[in-house]
Amino acid sequence: MKKIIGIALAAALASQVFGFSYSGRCHSQGQMPWTFNYNSRGTPDCANEFAQLTTALATWSNVSGQWYRQVRGANTSQLNYGYDSSVLAVWYHSSYRSYGQNPWRWGSGAIAVNVYWYSGSLIVHNDVCFNNYNFSWSDSGASGRMDVQNIAAHEFGHNLCLNDLYNSGARDYTMYGYCSYGETKKRTLHADDIAGIRYIYPNTGVRLNEFKASPNGGDVVVTWEAAVEINHAGYNLYRREDVGLGAEYVKLNEALIIGNSPYTFKDENVVGGVAYEYLLEAVDLNSHKERFGPVRISMPGLKATFALAPSYPNPARTEAVITFTLPEAGPARLTVYDVSGRRVATLAEGALEAGEREVVWNLTDDRGASVPPGVYFYRLETPTETAARRLVVAR
Ligand SMILES: [Zn+2]
pLDDT tens across 171-203, in order? Predict the structure, then answer.
């Protein structure tokens, strides 16, 4: 939070709309309530600073339609901010130096600072420090002083991961980043501040930290991580081939996907060289649906390997199915020979497509006559590769 003492008048931007600003990080429900320990010395400037801090915490906790809760804990003798077990509210003032406190370090214009630590998108710790080096404090909106509740309400809004707003059109919002002496209008929340806390900590529905699709061998692994799941029943996952506008999404799961975040869904029905889009649908207990995404993935092109598979059945009595794979389109030939090396039948010949194909041999020679029982060989040839296998014809 920055401080300006005299506000220079500027032309107002009458039609601008100012939304709340959110850092993308937040608390988890398991961290509730978020508990502050007040440094027991407070500020020497006024009597009711702790009651005002507590009221400022509650100003946010009391907003309906959201689940975030922040409360007062024990008093503490801790003086300095830091990543430790105690979430701290502390005034930094010059008389504290004899107690080992570091001097105010965030610039003389900063009225208060909310320092937070995070892991991924989760806030893991924060401390709120009030500047008593450069400012005097009041619990009554006194002129020439900063009002405790006014500033605390703003700083505790940062606990939620709401950001400062600096545009003059947001000057009446609690999260506006400037203020003046004696100001008290930030003690209460503006509709935009309320929209912010309800957005980050909604008491219905789902909010995702992450939703992504990744190639995994020849499959796609779709993962998503939910920060919030309230009145939540489960998910549906949809996919479409990226074949231009109008392609239909197809649901991949049969039953609703339930479980614990993070979620993983392995999609094995994908083809190399094709792009897909995935759409996630959260369903709540009242069957309301909310969709997330899509996320897009391009599968790497998979080059097939030259292969000639064992025929089946073997021995063959009426027919033999022969499967082979060509890595690229081009001339190829599949022929059957008897044990003396004489060609019996040509099953495929010419320019063939890349990929896997099946050929059925009905156990006849090239003139249509049934071949006698015995051992045969079938051979696949391309200009660069050859493979052969044995099969038995039994009658
Ligand atoms: Zn601020």
Answer: 999 999 999 999 999 999 999 999 899 888 887
What's the CATH number of domain 205-298, 3.40.50.1000, 2.60.40.10, 1.10.150.120, 3.40.1350.10? 2.60.40.10
Is it the case that residue 11 has pLDDT exceeding 60?
no
Output the CA 158–ligand 1 centroid distance in Å.
7
- Give me the phi and psi of 169, to 5 degrees please: -65, -15
CA of 111 to the centre of ligand 1 (A): 9
| Centre of ligand 1 from the C-alpha of residue 163, in Å | 7
The CATH number of the structural domain formed by 307-393 is: 2.60.40.4070
Q: Which CATH architecture has domain 29-200?
A: 3-Layer(aba) Sandwich (3.40)
First and final CA of the chain: distance in angstroms? 91
Bridge partners for 130 per DSSP: 91, 112
Domain assignments of the chain as residue spans, ordered by start: 29-200, 205-298, 307-393
CA of 1 to the centre of ligand 1 (A): 3
Local structure of residue 63 (DSSP, 8 states): -
What is the distance in A from the centroid of ligand 1 to the CA of 2?
7
Task: Determine the Cα–Cα distance for residues 316 and 178; give it in Å rounded to an integer.
Answer: 87
In this structure, are strands 275-284 and 232-241 parallel, antiparallel, or unpaired?
Answer: antiparallel
The residues, any chain, with a CB within 8 Å of residue 51's CB and separated by 6 or more, are: 139
- Structure tokens, 255: 């039953």
CB 279 within 8 A of CB 211: no
Do the domains 29-200 and 205-298 sit in the same CATH topology, yes or no?
no
| Contact in structure between 1 and 113 (CB atoms under 8 Å) | yes
- Return the pLDDT at 16: 37
User: For residue 99, how far is its CA from the centre of ligand 1 (angstroms)?
Assistant: 27
